[in-house]
Design brief:
Oligomer: single chain
Largest sheet: 7 strands, mixed
CATH class of the largest domain: Alpha Beta
Structural class: alpha+beta
Strand content: 15-25%
Number of domains: 3
Helix content: 25-40%
Length: 465
């Protein structure tokens, strides 16, 4: 996405642009899979799938490409109807909290008010089923007396009958005490608040319409199957070595925009990089992810009152998302039967694809027994993003287990909004969501691609080599 945006912006500025794409597919980590059945096409997302309303650059790009009529609401997490939680061996609705449910305890929470105790128990449930393992490992042992006291103060006037079954009440409480939690947990909660508090959108017909429209609109030649094997910065520009269909090629240009994900870039020989850029490339934290799509003969979950949104499990599945607003004809549907990110993705990633799908089918039948009926699942597909040779990851992330700082009134270390969301070293400009302030989102890729194009347009000092 970042490379296509940069190409479109540079072409608009009058530059000659050549795009080198390692794979045979356009879109990078935007990847729509289509199931064909009875002459019809049904799609699901193996990559990016939702667009928050506050991401202005995404919607400006969609408008520019004429895709605005394709926008539909995406119901996520708390926005759908009838989601299920599968936790500690019990299956129940979002509003329920079964007596005796085994949940982790918050150290030092004994003696708090009944309202604070109920709030913390609900929070423990949401963290258990929704947070990645990296964040779960930080949450319970790291929350100190300052956090618990802030919860107690926030709920001093709470109604004695309040059970916090409405997720909005939990989220309001988290917003009030967010300055008393460690940074990684804070960033996770910010993401949950974003998903819960603002409208989300999707492109009916598939998210890949966005990169495909960019590729058609940018006006640059795109050479697929061009795998970069080495990069060299020189006093006059950048030399890029490529293997294309097994043939070695070399390209040279005064400036090169590189949007290769950093886990892949780290494996390449790069001559001439300065120490700061090397440190940035080496230091970025990344998360893997797995997704499993099931093409179902019936949207059987709708008979249970589920309309869009998600369910969550503390088991292998982690997240399940239900199709909606996708203009599917007939009773069929594509279920995102499992979405795992970070360390939670590792157990499924370790399985061969067929075993991965089989394991997910067994697990999701715990939530929806009808899915186990013969003939209900017509087809399936899965992806492990860490095994993809062109990504080696799902996204950059701030879920760094080393982040133990206490945040007082804001996220520590956030870059200034005016700071460019691309990195320059001589004639090489690095771009991608990993360079942006909106990591893991299409918005970040677009912002970085636009900033990279703006950098190319400005003079820069020659590199001393």
């Amino acid at each position: 996405m970042a490379g296509l945006v940069a190409a479109m912006e540079l072409r608009a500025r009058g530059h000659e642009v050549l795009v080198l794409e390692a794979s045979q597919r356009i879109g990078g980590r935007v990847w729509t899979h289509r199931f064909e059945h009875a002459g019809r096409s049904y799609h699901g997302e193996l990559g990016a799938m939702r667009l928050p309303a506050s991401h202005a650059r995404v919607f400006a790009t969609i408008e520019k490409l004429g895709l605005t009529p394709k926008l539909r609401r995406f119901l996520s997490v708390f926005q759908g109807q009838g989601g299920i939680l599968d936790c500690a061996g019990q299956r129940f609705g979002f509003g329920a909290l079964p007596p005796g449910l085994a949940l982790p305890e918050w150290p030092g929470a004994a003696g708090l008010s009944p309202a604070a105790t109920r709030f913390l128990r609900r929070l423990a449930l949401l963290v258990t089923v929704m947070a990645p393992r990296e964040v779960r490992d930080l949450a319970f042992p790291q929350m100190g007396a300052d956090f618990l006291a802030a919860v107690q103060r926030h709920l001093a006037g709470a109604d004695a009958a309040t059970d916090f079954s409405d997720p909005a009440a939990i989220l309001a409480g988290l917003e009030a005490v967010r300055g008393r939690i460690n940074q990684a947990f804070h960033l996770f909660l910010s993401d949950i608040l974003l998903k819960a508090a603002e409208p989300l959108y999707q492109l009916a017909g598939g998210a890949d319409q966005l990169p495909l429209a960019l590729a058609a609109r940018c006006g640059a030649e795109i050479r697929r199957g061009a795998e970069v094997t080495a990069i060299e910065l020189t006093a006059t520009g950048v030399s890029v070595s490529v293997s294309r269909h097994g043939v070695a090629e070399t390209y040279a240009a005064p400036q090169v925009v590189c949007t290769i994900p950093l886990p892949v870039l780290r494996r390449l020989p790069i001559a001439g990089l300065d120490a700061r850029t090397r440190q940035r490339i080496a230091g970025m934290n990344y998360a893997g992810a797995t997704k499993v799509l099931l093409f179902c003969a019936e949207r059987c979950w709708e008979a249970e009152g589920i309309q869009g949104g998600a369910s969550f499990s503390d088991r292998l599945l982690r997240q399940v998302y239900y199709p909606h607003n996708q203009d599917f004809p007939g009773p069929e549907g594509v279920l995102l039967a499992s979405y795992c990110i970070g360390a939670d993705a590792e157990p499924l990633a370790a399985l061969p694809p067929a075993e991965r799908v089989a394991a997910v089918r067994r697990e999701v039948a715990r939530l929806h027994p009808a899915l186990a009926r013969p003939g209900m699942v017509l087809d399936s597909v899965s992806v492990d993003w860490t095994a993809n040779p062109w990504t080696r990851s799902a996204c950059s992330t701030d879920w760094d287990p080393g982040m133990q700082d206490i945040v007082q009134g804001g996220v520590a270390g956030l870059a200034d909004e005016a700071e460019p969301q691309a990195w320059r070293c001589g004639g090489l400009v690095l771009a991608g969501e990993h360079c942006s302030q909106a990591k893991a989102w299409i918005e970040g890729a677009i912002a970085s691609g636009q900033d990279a194009a703006a950098m190319v347009a400005r003079p820069f000092p020659a590199l001393a080599v």
